[in-house]
Amino acid sequence: MNISRIDLNLAQVFLALWHERSVSRAAERLALTQPAVSASLRRLRALCGDELFVRTRYGMQPTSRATTMASILEECVDTLRGALGQRGEFNPAFSSRSFVVGCDGGLDYALGPHLMAKIREVAPNVTLTARAVPADTMNLTLDRREIDLAVTIYPLTRPDCVTLSLASYRMVCVGDPEFVNLPETLRLEELCVWDQILIEGARQHSVFDHALRNLGFSRTIRTVVPSFGHLPLFLRKARTVAVVPEYIAHAFREMTGLCVAGLPDIVGPREIRLLSPVANRNDAGLCWLQGLVLDARHVWSV
Fold this sequence. Notes:
Protein name: LysR family transcriptional regulator
Oligomer: single chain
Strand content: 15-25%
Strand order of the largest sheet: 4-3-5-12-6
InterPro entries: LysR-type_TF, LysR_HTH_N, LysR_subst-bd, WH-like_DNA-bd_sf, WH_DNA-bd_sf, YidZ_PBP2
Distance between the termini: 62 Å
GO molecular function, one term: DNA binding
Structural class: alpha/beta
Shape: elongated
Order of helices and strands: HHHEEHEHEHEEEHEHEHEHEEH
CATH topology of the largest domain: D-Maltodextrin-Binding Protein, domain 2
Keywords: DNA-binding, Transcription, Transcription regulation
Largest sheet: 5 strands, mixed
Helix content: 40-55%
CATH architecture of the largest domain: 3-Layer(aba) Sandwich
CATH class of the largest domain: Alpha Beta
Number of helices: 11
Family: Belongs to the LysR transcriptional regulatory family.
């Protein structure tokens, strides 16, 4: 192979496809047209004698050859950027990139609106997707490169990600002031008097109830709903309360006027963490997005 005839820009196209798993998103990332990226992919396939990326229901998935090439090309491009003193360029005011932030534990309710407002202010053509990701699929979602950043309440660590602590949170009680008159704080015996709503599959509640039982208390669960998003509607229909993370209470109090009562901390400190793939460290756009997430600390507490 005559390396002098290889267009080094093809490495950038390859890495954009590797990270985005989409021709259209790769084109946005590189500020190119989709036909230009498709043409570069055809050249890459001819050069390598391999399909490299195959279209599936999960996007453009890499072949084994592409997986082998990715880390090598990533390192080579990083080395070249370092030698040239470049970190990549990103101007939020003029960018039309799309970003996906994956959240579990209902974190998207608190983080998504804040990020949207900030992005609309400084990057009017950027598109944000705040994706709710079940905790047991967050690893798979990162593996498939379906999200750019992960925000989680679970103790997920990966060798290919930098983990940053965003905040800690506690559990609180919420109710509709039309039906319940909650004090500033509730004792456990007072909490257990109320009929309550539980979020189906919310593991944090299982931890809370386990700790509650260890102290000799138990809650009366009258309703189970699929997600945190159902709570305001259900709480407005009956004299009932729910125990939720304080970032959910903060988001819903602003939006619906729910009242909030503090609870004794019986489950210990709970941490919210950001996982940022190491492969993104020289992507100026993702570094900018990570900065917005780090600056959003005020959304996590009541």
